[in-house]
Amino acid sequence: MPLGLLKYGFSKRHPAPRALPPRPDLKDSYDVVIVGGGGHGLAAAYYLSKYHGITNIAVIDKGYLAGGNTARNTAIIRSNYLTPEGVRFYDESVRLYQGLSNEFDFNILYSERGHLTLAHTDASLRTMRWRAEVNQHCGVDSELIFPDEIAKLAPSLNLSRDVRHPILGALHHKPGAIARHDAVAWGYAIGAASRGVELHTRTEVTGFGIEGGAVTSVVTDRGTVRCGAVLQAVAGSSSRVAALAGFKLPIRTVPLQACVSQPLKPFLDPIVVSGSLHCYISQSSRGELVMGGSVDPYSLYQQRSTLDFKEGLMANMLELFPFLSGVKLLRQWAGIADMTPDFSPVMGETPIRNYWLDSGWGTWGFKATPVCGKRMAETIAIGKAPDILDPFRLDRFERFDLVGEGGAASVGH
Amino acid sequence: MLQIACPHCGPRDENEFSCGGEAHIARPKQPDAISDAEWADYLFMRTNPKGALAERWCHTVGCRRWFNVERDTVTHTILRVYAMGAPRGGGGGA
């Protein structure tokens, strides 16, 4: 149980000392330079400093801390994927998330809600049954349920047969959860900084020094630093940063839009997703409805929101929850997502020695934050990717050994 | 929403079209003579530029014909529309 707030209440030190130190000058040399100060980069810095004794680390970000997709996702955490490789990987992340408030002594508002993936056709019922079997085989709690049970979990959901796409069943994944996404990044940042990791925000990486096939330095707009290893964790900018290092990725950058309604009294416990209707919805701890649909159908490096996205999303959302027609939208935005050909991430070794990659996070990056941080830290510390990351290596594409993740959200399969 | 000037039907709304991805990716002439890495490069690897990008688009609910569009992936403006088979040219790099 995180007691941070209670301790603060009884403390004599008010106001609390600043949690994150001001930005220092860049040193000449670091053991590890992490490019990207989002959830993934901060988590890697945290696990390196706490569990591997490596503290001479600089986290470098062009913008502010956790201001990219860490701030722009819809905060859903689940492991009900389709491939055994994916299920095993995301399940480790869910388990780490469950203990994260304790790990930080800082409340990330982890809220286990259950996750319903609706099936509107016989074909999607078959897929849900397949996912349930794979999940159970991997020790993950998922099962196929039918409208009578769905009605108990989500009484406000329209289960009428008299609609265009009646709900025939759902994959019920009990560990499905949401969390306060910013708090996850803050927890990792505070933990890393308290162990000596330097956070260099507003610092742009403009190149890499590579000698004899290994990375030896990072060039930034505030000077050049030598480094023992680099971790690239830059979400939607993966192709551009990889190009600076001189290699290509199988990635397209596409916007994923989302929006939030005005706050309502709590009425929706589970997270509800419909792949066929391209929409998903959950109610945050503030009572706002967090909603999203599919990725935009073309590449774009723009975080804008469009009217046709909202029209398309709401047309389907109102079939699931007709009474939402009177509810107003409060905020709208987009994140730029790395889309890979097989809807799985790309992690581990690159053509450059000591240059490690954490990319290809499409629409599934937030839920993988803890497992990525932990396992990328392990990769950097021992110089080799552990087995759990092996299926996601970059050279799977030239070995034609793809991990076709049919359980990924917001993408057409 | 974009307005796209279909070379056959004139300007129409974006939702009449489908984007077919990056253009001018040449299929290797002798697939069995190249390495797996080269074939994977053709199939999967993309430059994914932040800036001018040449793409194939199809007027799916109109004339159903394919053509090329050069679009800026930062400003989301269309720089040029040109016929299938025509070289990219017209500036903007490869």
What's the helix and strand layout?
The complex is a heterodimer of chains A (413) and B (94).
Chain A (H helix, E strand, L loop, with lengths): L3 H7 L18 E7 L3 H13 L5 E4 L15 E2 L6 H15 L1 H5 L6 E2 L2 E5 L2 H16 L4 E4 L1 H7 L15 E5 L3 E2 L2 H13 L4 E3 L4 E7 L2 E7 L2 E10 L5 H8 L6 E10 L9 E4 L4 E5 L5 E7 L11 H14 L8 E11 L6 E3 L6 E5 L9 H14 L31
Parallel strand pairs in A: 1-2, 1-12, 2-9, 5-14, 12-19
Antiparallel strand pairs in A: 3-8, 4-8, 5-7, 6-7, 10-11, 11-12, 13-16, 13-17, 14-15, 15-16, 18-19
Helix pairs in contact in A: 2-7, 2-10, 3-10
Chain B lengths: L2 E4 L3 E4 L4 E5 L13 H8 L8 E7 L7 E7 L5 E6 L11
Antiparallel strand pairs in B: 1-2, 3-4, 4-5, 5-6
Structure description:
Chain A is α+β, with helices and mostly antiparallel strands and 413 residues long. Chain A has a domain at 113-175 and 253-339: D-Amino Acid Oxidase, Chain A, domain 2. In chain A, 27% of the residues lie in helices and 25% in strands. The longest helix of chain A is centred in the N-terminal third of the chain and has 16 residues, at 122-137. The radius of gyration of chain A is 21 Å and the shape is globular. Chain A starts with a helix and ends in a 31-residue tail after the last helix. In chain B, a hairpin with a 7-residue loop joins strand 4 (52-58) and strand 5. Chain B has one helix at residues 36-43; strands at residues 3-6, 10-13, 18-22, 52-58, 66-72, 78-83. By secondary structure, chain B is mostly beta strands. Chain B has a single domain (3-82), classed as Folate-binding fold (2-Layer Sandwich). The interface between A and B is medium-sized, with 24 and 25 residues.
